[in-house]
Amino acid sequence: MSRRRRRTAIGAEAQSRLPVDAIWADVRRVFRTGIHPAVALCMRHRGEVVLDRVIGVIDPERPDSPDNRATPDTLFNLFSASKLLTAAVVHALVERGQLELDEAVAETLPAFGVGEKRDIRLRHLLQHTAGMPDMPPDLDVEQAMYDIPAVVERLARMPLRTTPGRAVAYHPMSSWAVVCELVRHRTGRDLRALADELIVGPMGMTRFNYGVEEAALPRVALHANAGVQAVPVMESVFRRTVGVSTAEAIRISNSPAFLQAILPSANVIATPRETARFMQMLLDGGVSDGKRILESKTVHRMLSDETPRSFDGTFGLPMRYGLGVMKGGSRLSLFGMRTRRAFGHLGFSNVMVYAEPDRELVVVLFTTGKPLLAWGMVPWIGLIQKLAFRVPKGRRR
Fold first, then answer.
1. The domain boundary residue, chosen from 195, 227, 248
2. Burial of 130 (0-12, 13-18, 19+ CB in 10 A)
């Protein structure tokens, strides 16, 4: 079956006054660019799932196999949007008194007690102000998946790029490896187990955590190169902050080892629907289906303790961060125009997960093509902008 004839797979959707069919038509335009083997969109409005649809295939290497069709139960990688779960786990541990946002990293990891590194606080790691956005040079990324402590030891020996707490520069991997190791030292447990105990289990979710078991590997959507990969400036930044080229990152992300590891900023694997449930919990102030998961003051702090909107030293764009989340903007924003209170995260490279309080909206958009630059990205950008216009502001009275 050709890509153009592939059918939409639809999950359970509540009736809505929103123009869901028009929104899905925009998604299909993204798919027809040919960049993405699969595209999935799950939207919640006023607490209800109003759109849960997927188009495309799981494995781009066998597009015409009859068992290869992507469905709403297909598993997708959040990539950098995985930081949202890691941040939630950290904030749950702060609630329990096992961590403090203003504690010095060096108190738990003494290797950071040298020079300005002694001033790095846990909140700096979450807000991308730790001054250490780069990964160690000549890093064996595949080995690093199994040995985060060794990565953190090397990070502790590297010079800082900026004074902790002073400048914003997105940390794709480095600070989150330190968070992972800090949590392990303080609790004696790994992030997957803690996520299951503190967030995933209490919410009754089964497909929203770091990595998957071997039996679930065939359900995970795989990724493909798309568009122009070797854009010199972008590729240089990617190599410096992630440790590999984009092409190598795509290859590794499809490997069973990556898909079964525990990577705090890179491999939460989930269905679109369960990802949307998690974001709805944050939008509802820590409550999911009437059950308290995080204290309301915890969620408020996570979202409102923000960096000033300033030039980001990694992205080269004005950015604003909460304690583990990317924030929207009054004008230009990752999440569309006029989304000042929106929060969520972008993931490599066209993954978008966010919630918008003023519209009572949750959006989870997964794509499996990985372009750094392509004309086909224009419809994707248009889709994000249109969502902000198609869903009016205004809360229920």
1. 195
2. buried
Q: How far is CA 22 from CA 112, 224, 383, in A?
A: 52, 27, 11
Domain hosting residue 241, numbered range: 3-82+206-390
Q: Is residue 395 part of a domain?
A: no
CA angle 62, 243, 320 (to 5 degrees): 100
The domain boundary residue, chosen from 195, 221, 254: 195
DSSP H helical segments within 203-289, as ranges?
A: 232-242, 246-253, 256-260, 272-283
- State the residue for tokens 């069709």: 69
Distance from C-alpha of 37 to C-alpha of 306, rounded to nearest angstrom: 36
pTM for the structure as a whole = 0.96
Q: Write the CATH number for 177.
A: 3.40.710.10
43-100: pLDDT as tens digits: 999 999 999 999 999 999 998 888 999 999 999 999 999 999 999 999 999 999 999 9
> Residue with structure tokens 């950071």?
112
Q: How far apart are CA 357 and CA 389, in angstroms?
A: 15
Grouping H, G, I as helix, E, B as strand and the rest as coil, residue 55 is strand
Q: Would you say residue 397 lies in a domain?
A: no
Number of domains present in the structure of the chain: 2
